[in-house]
Specification:
single chain; 128 residues; mainly alpha; two-stranded antiparallel ribbon; 6 helices; 4 strands
């Protein structure tokens, strides 16, 4: 993948996604915009990030998917107003902080949110 293709990938992503963590290198999370800047500067980190983008990978391990999904959800949910955001068919209603607690505790609702976020992230990595 050339720098041009990385640029095209970034430009096709929704604006709201460009500043959410999506890639993990050496334990550090990078947004698509940060990755683009590193790739354009030609740094060794940029080369590593470009390789991840080429492979459609978030990092080097399955746990990286979960780590980034947690970071993304945390960032997104913490920016939401503390009012009902999600309801189940059984009538239980969750605020953003309650959803974060579900995710952190690994409840079935939390795991479902993580899995949905990973699926969404995979779709973002396939944008071309």
């Amino acid at each position: 993948m050339t720098q041009t293709l990385v640029s095209q990938w970034l430009n096709k992503l929704p604006e709201a996604e460009k500043d959410l963590p999506l890639l993990l290198v050496s334990g550090n999370a990078y947004t698509p915009r940060m990755a683009y800047n590193e790739v354009m500067r030609g740094t060794s980190l940029g080369n590593q990030l470009q390789a991840l983008i080429e492979r459609g990978s978030f990092g080097t391990a399955y746990s990286d998917e979960q780590t980034i999904a947690r970071l993304r959800l945390e960032q997104r949910l913490k920016s939401q107003p503390e009012r009902p955001l999600f309801a189940t068919l059984s009538g239980k209603v969750f605020t953003p902080s309650q959803l974060l607690a579900e995710i952190q505790e690994g409840t079935s609702i939390g795991v479902q949110w993580l899995n949905n976020e990973v699926s969404h992230m995979k779709a973002l990595m396939q944008v071309r």
